[in-house]
């Protein structure tokens, strides 16, 4: 499989991306990489990383990059030669089988939606974030691709999450929960109440509403929500984890006994950091678009980018987009093609 | 001030509530308490806690209690003699100045909304949760009273949060942020985009959108959101905090060095637990109703209930409901009385 890697995306790009590519070439012998970016600008980093020539590595020039503060639509409007847009075009032209980018999430959504379109039957894409819980991991979908959703969108997200969980985490019959504010089906907002009805009728393992409380106890294997709630949850959880780390450090530095204790137990703190460091988990697949695209956290490390390349390779091999299209039809929740085309156009114009 | 305390509300009621009342009578010499509950049923606990007779303590019998699994509206329909409804009636009759309950949140909202009505100019009540952040505390409002909101509701919540922050946390010019998915004003969902416009025009210290990332760094003193998002954030954050505690314990128990380290640093872990234990913070005021009502976390300890009684006393002394009504008018966002009456009726009928 050939993976187009956005050299310019991420807070520590291009350095960590190039470092990741060097590692991926060693660790993933079946993967070919197309490194996409402004070649003159990354030359220094290529040399510094001593990225060796490889028959499995090629370079594609992209003049621009969509910077983090820019509107998402710049990827398809004013910056048509940006690295993420070039990545999407490589997939469209059949020159690459998947994309990895740790850059502007909205730009990646816009570029892939417009260039690659949606898989038949799906109206909107969703970001699927993999999160740690006591006893396992769970998928939060949509973690931020769509701020306003309809019930049918959420039903389609449920299918995407189900397939991700099944084929890539190996969960046989994933428990699918709907993020809400109370366990009973009468609780929730207008969106979740309607979505509850649709999910109940689908041939999936729908376990009902799950509350915020249930998330990190592995209350469900797949948690379905609109992208506003999902993004807010994801980022709030990162924020409190960071704060807890800060408070712990502060408390441990208060006197000499605690400091000694902290030294003795230092590996425990490292382990804790690894468990809760979901930035390391290799990025969130953007599901529902007609192609494979893995979006890394802005603060992705090289390890995270390597992991994202591995996931992109796996998704491409298993033809996840086709699986999604088939399963959405099977569940009776496919969106008619004309609606889907219109919706895509409208969103791209925003 | 006389505070009606719901003896039956909370996972550990009536025991912890009675324990809390005993402490409050000692610690808060100016507070009178009306303990409301099923008197025969709580007799044993009263004796066990050796709750002494006091001229500042009286008892009010309430036959029933709205259990956690029941619909909220039972408080105003099938269980009109429930402890929370009796509390609301005591305030309505001028026999109490405020309510404290760690019971069913929805039932407390329904009982107070219907019995006490809203303050003039406010359409819906909001739960204001006080949360810890690096360097201080912030208020999340609405933390769960309303699952579906209009922009004007959020603007009114902003005012409630502002007054809470100003008069009870002593923040002079509280920074008010709108919970959203991106810092720029163009980002968010339909609700936040409209709300942004209203907040921008109000004579408050509106600092724009705040993301989940900003919350626990004290990105704002007051974070405004709809009750669905707020509740989901609140509970997800509790859930991850619990999971982090679990992982830390697990990591510390792995070998003898770590165990020794954990013993040396044990007070640090206790301190950490105290900081992040917002269950202890004494409950969330239900703002916007025409009366004072503090709702405790279901898992409230006696300490938390004492703290809630202290807050209720403070709110009643400062006549917070009147302050809210005045400030909403001042900000030009008062809801017309007829809308407010209709909305209240409708909600109660749900």
Describe what this molecule looks like in 3D.
Two copies of one chain form a homodimer. With 350 residues, chain A is an alpha/beta fold. The first copy, chain A, contains twelve helices and eleven strands. The radius of gyration of chain A is 21 Å and the shape is globular. The two termini of chain A are 33 Å apart.
Question: What is the compact description of this entry?
Answer:
In chain A, 46% of the residues lie in helices and 15% in strands. The first copy, chain A, contains twelve helices and eleven strands.
Rg of chain A, Å, rounded: 21 Å
> Largest interface, with Cβ-Cβ < 8 Å?
A-B, 66 and 66 residues
Helix-strand category of chain A: alpha/beta
Name the helix and strand elements of chain A from N-terminus to C-terminus, one letter apiece: EHEHEHEHEEHEHEEHHHEEHHH
The CATH topology of the largest domain in chain A, please?
A: Rossmann fold
Biggest sheet details of chain A: 11 strands, mixed
Mean model confidence by pLDDT of chain A: 90
Helix content of chain A: 40-55%
- Oligomer status: homodimer
What strand line-up does the widest sheet of chain A have? 3-2-1-4-11-10-5-6-9-7-8
How do the helices and strands line up, and which of them pair or pack?
Two copies of one chain form a homodimer.
Chain A: E1 2-6, H1 15-27, E2 32-37, H2 39-48, E3 57-61, H3 83-92, E4 98-101, H4 105-116, E5 126-133, E6 136-141, H5 151-168, E7 176-179, H6 190-201, E8 206-210, E9 222-224, H7 227-252, H8 256-264, H9 266-276, E10 284-287, E11 293-295, H10 302-317, H11 320-330, H12 337-349
Parallel strand pairs in A: 1-2, 1-4, 2-3, 4-11, 6-9, 7-8, 7-9
Antiparallel strand pairs in A: 5-6, 5-10, 10-11
Helix pairs in contact in A: 1-10, 3-4, 5-6, 5-11
